[in-house]
Design a protein that fits this description.
The complex is a heterodimer of chains A (308) and B (87). With 308 residues, chain A is α/β, with parallel strands linked by helices. In chain A, 37% of the residues lie in helices and 23% in strands. Chain B has 87 residues and is α+β, with helices and mostly antiparallel strands. Classes of the chains: A alpha/beta (308), B alpha+beta (87).
């Protein structure tokens, strides 16, 4: 096990810049070993965003991380710069709830969440349940706060929500994210579907026209204005007041109160929408995307800003 | 020595691991079970683990057996489970 200085520096940078950093075989979507897959599975249940490094595609990291951590196996999980362990320790930490705490996730719920189901939805669900004897209706809410309903066998540890003539099972992790959920039916061209509304889910990104942006700036309203383009594009054209969103600025924003108004722009509005959604998922509730980006700004507001 | 390790079967490797751990950690009681295909389960009881975190305990054991785990032809592919206990 050898560790040269450049490799040490690279590992050091990875664990400093990423709050949750997993060294694994393969990647999050396609783990190449059972131990790595197990840790990915646990992290996926707890948090939406984390960084992975595929050691199979990087031999110097693969050997280097073993010396770096005094740990000869992969995967290895770092949180906040601290080495938490490999697969079996992570499983133990998950089981004890310590991993939740390390990741800043609320512990799994021990009480059933409060769920409201409309009468129409209840009637639909009851009739679906009658066609599936012996199966239980489950509600899941994942780390991205996406909800789902399915019928399946009851799982140990499930919390039960008693509805009129129907029981809804919610696993403890989902339950901690499901309080206040309402379930209704929506009728679409393709038939009846269920609409699950979760008040805990991130608010949608607001769309801001360049005229509205101009008014905001003119009024002197406080907001954080971010440019998600490349430094090269900024050389070509820029809107005054917008800061380049680099890693340092991203970390700075992440430390701000969640009700801070954030406005993102890029060239045409695509990249900034993705950035806005990222911060929305991190809990920011007042997030705006500039429709049409700097190009619309050049056309509608300030022709002195070059188009490219 | 290296050749001997490479040609050894699971039980022989288990014996080598047991010796290496016992030599590295004073007064350790060591059990190693071969699970096949280079997979092992390790259980170590030692006073040396007192007051240490799970990571630190396992680092102590891994330091003893690291030579068996490095390189593409390592006789030990994975430790499926490692228990570190105090007496």
């Amino acid at each position: 096990m050898s560790l040269d200085q450049p490799t040490r520096d690279r590992i050091d940078t990875l664990i400093r810049q990423n709050d949750v950093m997993l060294f694994m075989k393969g990647n999050r979507g396609a783990p190449q070993c059972g131990f790595s897959a197990t840790v990915v599975g646990l992290l996926d249940r707890l948090i939406a965003d984390y960084e992975t490094c595929d050691v199979l595609s990087d031999p110097s990291i693969r050997e280097g991380i073993k010396a770096f951590s005094s740990w000869p196996t992969i995967p290895q999980l770092y949180v906040g710069g601290e080495f938490l362990g490999g697969c079996d320790i992570i499983q133990d930490l998950f089981a004890s709830g310590e991993l939740h705490e390390k990741l800043g996730v609320s512990a799994p719920a021990t009480a059933a969440p409060s769920i409201t189901v409309s009468e129409k939805a209840l009637a639909e669900l009851r009739s679906l349940a009658e066609q599936r004897p012996g199966q239980t209706l489950h509600l899941t809410v994942d780390a991205r706060l996406q909800s789902g309903l399915y019928f399946g066998p009851e799982e140990p540890g499930d919390l039960s929500v008693a509805l009129e003539g129907l029981t809804l099972a919610v696993d403890p992790l989902s339950a901690s994210r499901a309080d206040g959920v309402t379930i209704d039916v929506v009728e679409t061209d393709r038939g009846v579907g269920f609409a699950i509304d979760n008040p805990n889910a991130p608010k949608a990104v607001n769309q801001l026209t360049v005229r509205e942006l101009k008014e905001l700036i003119d009024r002197g309203d406080p907001f954080v204005f971010l440019d998600v383009r490349t430094p090269e594009e900024r050389e070509t054209a820029r809107i005054p007041g917008a800061r380049l969103l680099d890693e340092a600025v991203a970390a700075e924003i992440d430390a701000l109160p969640r009700d801070t108004k954030l406005v993102f722009h890029c060239h045409h509005g695509g990249r900034s929408q993705a950035a806005a959604e990222h911060f929305s998922a991190r809990g920011f509730g007042n997030v705006h995307n500039v429709v049409g980006g700097i190009d619309a700004w050049s056309v509608e507001i300030d022709p002195s800003v070059p188009r490219y | 020595m290296a050749l001997q390790i490479l040609s050894a079967g699971g039980d022989e490797v288990a014996g080598d691991l047991r010796k290496a751990i016992a030599a590295h950690i004073d007064g350790a009681e060591v059990e190693v079970e071969a699970r096949g295909a280079g997979h092992f389960v390790v259980r170590v009881v030692s006073q040396a683990f007192a007051g240490k975190s799970p990571v630190q305990c396992q680092q102590l054991v891994y330091a003893a057996i690291a030579p068996f785990m490095s390189g593409d032809t390592a006789p030990v592919h994975a430790i499926d489970k490692m228990e570190t206990l105090t007496p």
